[in-house]
Every structure is written in C-alpha cells, then in structure tokens.
C-alpha cells in the first residue's frame, strides 16, 4: 500500500499574539474581507486560538466560523495566485481550511485526499495558501518581534563535566578551604596546649 505524501505545515507564531496587532495586519493584508472573517482569521490562524473558543468569543456557531475561516484563507491565497474553481473545489477549500485547524473528520480527510490526488488546482491552492500564510506570519514577526529573553546563569550543579568553574567562584572556594584548614590547625594547637591531645 502506498504511503500518503507528507504535507507541508504552515509556520505558527512562536509566542502569544497581540490581538490588536494581529487584526491590524489582517486588515492591511485583506482589506476587502468582512470584519467578522478578519477577526476569526486573526484569532485562529495567527493567534492559534481553538475554534470553539473563537466561536464563543465571536458569538457564532462553529459551522459559521469554519465558513469564515475558509473564506479568509481563500482571500489570503488570492493575494498570491488567482485560480479557477467549481463546486468540488469550493468544498475542497473548506476541507483544507478544516485540516489546518485539526477539525477535519476522517471522512472529510478521505474525500480531501481523493480530491487532491486528482486536482492540481486544489493542490496549488493549498501550496499558495501555506506560502501566503507563512509570509503573513513573517510580516507580523518583522513588525512585532518578541523581545529576547534574558539568559539565566546556569547553576554550578548543571555545568558540563569538562566546563571549567568560573574564576570568581573558584577563588572564593580556595579562600574558604584555606580558612577551614587554618581553623583546624588552630584547634589542634589549642588541644595540644591543654594536654587533651598529645602530639
């Protein structure tokens, strides 16, 4: 049995999305898109929100949300390429959109895979959609790059075996060891002087 080809996966933002920035980017990229579709797209596609959460936040059904997301993704793909379509291709675009959000049923997956195997147009739609999506994410990151996290010092017990100790800590360790040796010598001398310890 022939294994299905591996599919590309669109990139996701590495951190949380500022909803206002995400919506502004979608509005600038897709100005002709309906506001509810822009909001849904910004929350789910850029923000990584679950469909159920987004539908509740927007006050719409998940079926309506799926339609809005497919519409937004078609508009996004059109920023890269115009493709002819028919009824079957329209349904395939909805299934591709569902698959992006892990909302595709097993039956839908079979139908989509069968359609994509024989439809170069829909395979191209998927490729162009992913490229347009990746460009959108890159635009967001270019405008709103996350601040680099400060690098915390590694505790001594987590150092690599062959990593030399830090010079300052090493010097402190030597001083502490010398102080302990000196205290032991003084204690031994004191014990010998009192006759408790015979040398």
Question: What's this entry about, in short?
Answer:
The protein is mostly helical. The protein is 64% helix and 0% strand.
Record the SSE blueprint.
Layout: H1 19-29, H2 35-46, H3 51-58, H4 62-78, H5 87-100, H6 106-118, H7 120-143, H8 167-194
Helix pairs in contact: 1-2, 2-3, 2-4, 3-4, 4-5, 4-7, 5-6, 5-7, 6-7
What this model shows, in words?
The protein has 2 domains: 19-143, no CATH class; 165-199. The protein is built from 8 helices and no strands. By secondary structure, the chain is mainly α. Helix 2 crosses helix 4 (62-78), helix 4 crosses helix 5 (87-100) and helix 4 (62-78) crosses helix 7.
How many helices? 8
Sheet bearing the most strands, described?
Answer: none
Please trace the helix and strand order, writing H or E for each element.
Answer: HHHHHHHH
Radius of gyration: 31 Å
Total domain count? 2
Q: What is the count of β-strands?
A: 0
Distance between the termini: 88 Å
What descriptors fit this protein?
64% helix; 199 residues; 8 helices; mainly alpha
